[in-house]
Amino acid sequence: MKRRILSGMRPTGKLHLGHYLGVLQNYVRLQEEYDSYFMVADLHALTTKWCESGSIRESRRDMVLDWLGAGLDPAKCTMFCQSDVPQHAYLFALLTMITPVSWVERNPTVKEMIRDLDLKGNVNLGLLSYPVLMAADIMAYRAEAVPVGRDQVPHLEFTRELVRSFNHIYGVDVFPEPQAVLNEFQMLVGLDGRKMSKSLDNHIIVSDLPEVIRKRMMTAYTDPLKVRRDDPGHPEDGCVIYQYHKLLHPADIQDIKTQCEQGSLGCVAHKKAVAEMVIERLAGFSSRRAGFAEDPSTVDRILAEGSLKASAVAGETVRLVREAVGI
Ligand code: TRP
User: CATH number for the domain including 13?
Assistant: First the structure.
């Protein structure tokens, strides 16, 4: 029996290179080894986008196409949408009964969201209970491991506390304590040298056309002291292109460093070369994605099949939980 994992992503739009290298490639590897459940967290998207809910469906489609393009295979893993599996909400309701309010109020990731969104006194209950819903997602599958980025670790710790608490209160071991499987490369720098993110507009969208990617790459931050090609460069002082090169093509990085420092490689030429590396790296992705996008019903069909499989597992969990609670 393979061990079960669950992970989710909020449908916030087309995925960028940071998601692709950091999260998706990890998912693709994990689907070989684990009984894997990958979830479109649309209820979680509503915690902050309740008034822009109209864009969620389209984002869901874009995101699942990105998953399929990256190599997630419906024959190997289960892809589904959170709101299609009502057991998440059911379990959430039961978990709120055993969750002290102080636990959600002190959760650092929730605090960060409240600060970033500048919500102050206007926090909706859905956002405050974000970690409880996430715990319900994980516990619905009695998942043993959860692939996440480092920023999600407090949420996972929260889930582990709830698991211990549930098992203790009701005197049965319904749930295993899930372990984090940390994503690699999760801090891919954006074009300006800060963390890559859509809200900072420093990202490269993986489903963009090659000419768009080439244009975006030309805006990347490079050594400001290197104005002309023959100026000596300082590639390790934050040059974004150098960092991408190192990640995508480490074999010749020493050589590139020397050429940049000695003034035989200019920033423009280097940007062009690295843009081609990105495009080449995404070639398989782009053609696979285009294949799945041809038939507009593909994503809906995959999610419908996925939600049936997910409901079977989550339904069994709810049965066990009702038995344990005695309702
Ligand atoms: N909170 C996660 C994020 O923003 C998304 C998510 C929702 C998730 N439910 C989950 C991740 C369950 C892992 C497991 O990235």
Answer: 3.40.50.620
Q: Is 42 in the pocket of ligand 1 (CB under 6 A)?
A: no
* Shared domain check, 143 and 271: no
84-138 pLDDT per residue, tens: 999 999 999 999 999 999 999 988 888 888 888 888 778 899 999 999 999 999 9
Q: Report the relative pairing of strands 78-81 and 35-40 from DSSP bridges.
A: parallel
Domain that holds residue 11: 4-188+296-325
138 lines ligand 1 (CB under 6 A): yes
Q: Of ligand 1's atoms, which has the minimum distance to the CA of residue 109?
A: 1
Element (H, E) at 122: none
Q: What is the CA radius of gyration of the chain?
A: 22
β-strand 179-182 against 35-40: which pairing, if any?
Answer: unpaired
pTM of the model: 0.94
Residue from 4, 5, 7 whose mutation best tests the ligand 1 pocket (most atoms within 8 A of CB): 7
Kindly report the CATH number assigned to the domain that includes residue 223.
1.10.240.10
Residue 160 sits in the same domain as residue 221: no
> Is 163 in the same domain as 244?
no
Distances (CA, A) of 229 to 244, 251, 257, 297: 19, 23, 13, 50
221 plus 160 within the same structural domain: no
CA–CA gap between residue 149 and residue 17 (Å, rounded): 15
